[in-house]
Amino acid sequence: MLTLTRSQWNLLFAGMLLFGTFFIAATRVRPLTSTAAPPALVSADTTPAPQADHPAPDFTLMRLDGTPVVLNKLKGQVALINIWATWCPPCRAEMPTIEAAYAQYRDQGFTVLAVNLQEDPRSVAAFMQEYSLTFPALLDLDGQVSRTYQALSLPSSFFVDKKGVIRAVYHGPMPRSVIAGTVEQLLQEGT
Amino acid sequence: MYPLVQIGPFRLSSGGLVLLLALILGGSMLARVARARGGEQLARQADNCFYPVLIGAMIGGRLWYGLFNLDLYGRNPGLFVALRVSDFAGPGALLGGLLAGYLWCRWNEFDKLRLADSAALALPLVQALASIGLLLSGEAFGMPTTLPWGVPLFGTMRHPTQLYFTLAALIVLSVLAWLSRRPLPVGTLAVVYLGLNGLALLVIEALRADSLRLPAGIRVAQVFGLALILAAVNWARWHIPSSSLTTQAETTPTGLQGQP
């Protein structure tokens, strides 16, 4: 069985303290350390589909101010297409997290397209104002885009890389770390 | 990630389901271990403790996560009470559960140390399963790697840190199961559990890409892990006799199965 004298325990304590402190300092996250890496090979599938490794199906939707947004014109940026509704509690819970990511990464080429599912524009505008959301809300008035993206549950999120390829799909509210991890990875990649 | 289980019109998160399964299993395992180590009375106390400890762990886990994401949570305090399976931090959950368990046991005059030893034998399995849930939900993900056992996530191969945590929990369980068959001072299993968990946090957290951080890039879970290790060693140097563990007078009942 284990047999240690008091002084040996003291030595172990001091040793662990020194080793632990050194290890923590050595493995800290340095400002220039990237948590992203070159991507694994992405499938060359060219058929647009709401699935990972397929080109994102193109759409044109109106913003609340009436200006059109064309998905394919956003190539060169990383886009999060988030399909949501104001009546959906998980969507509401997720919005502040998306806004935080938008504020953090928009200057690096990240944009959010919050595709609202068939709601009155005034309700959407009121919601965006209430939650202080600054990313564009798009109005899917006839539900066509939501159907194309097969958004059977809300929220549904599609991360589109700079080439317009869907790289990750999430159903349900995303934690902050998942949004940040996905966005940082895609921002690191070239066009 | 986020594979969903379709039940009629409902889609349930598989990560959340695994976590739920882990909690149910943990509750049942705690009662079983407590019964084996302290009879019906300890099993009743364990049952009585389960929900207060669970609630304490949930509050602690969310508070910890929120405090280290204060830029987001400070502006949206509602997130502290948002009903979602994610946004819990392990160290906070451990602290919250420990505090709630201590206060509940003290309030009810339960046998704190024997319950803690029983919990130490039940918790690793819960952690092992919960870590698989994290893998399914894409949380607690690792740094990029070229190692052959990397998992694809966010378009690249990454360390399967969630599986490392699962493996660590199973190793902790094996060590504790081995120790539980030996006569040890009451509370030793709980302390060993905390110390080994601290070691796992210290080492594995270094490979995580989404660690909560202190200034200068220090990973807060590593600091917490080191504190657990030091607390465990400190406890051992005062409570474990310098001659040999086997000569201790006050000992636990034998093993996982045996009645005292």
Task: Describe this protein's structure.
- The complex is a heterodimer of chains A (191) and B (260).
- Chain A has 191 residues and is an alpha/beta fold.
- Chain A has five helices and seven strands; from the N terminus they run αβββαβαβαββα.
- Chain A has a domain at 60-188: Glutaredoxin.
- Chain A starts with 5 loop residues before the first helix and ends with a helix.
- Chain B is mainly α and 260 residues long.
- In chain B, 61% of the residues lie in helices and 5% in strands.
- In chain B, the strands form two sheets. Chain B has a two-stranded antiparallel sheet with strand order 1-2.
- In chain B, strand 1 and strand 2 form a beta hairpin.
- Chain B is globular and about 50 Å long.
- Chain B starts with a strand and ends in a 21-residue tail after the last helix.
- The chains are: A alpha/beta (191), B mainly alpha (260).
- Chains A and B meet through helix 1, helix 2, strand 7 and helix 5 of A and helix 7 of B.
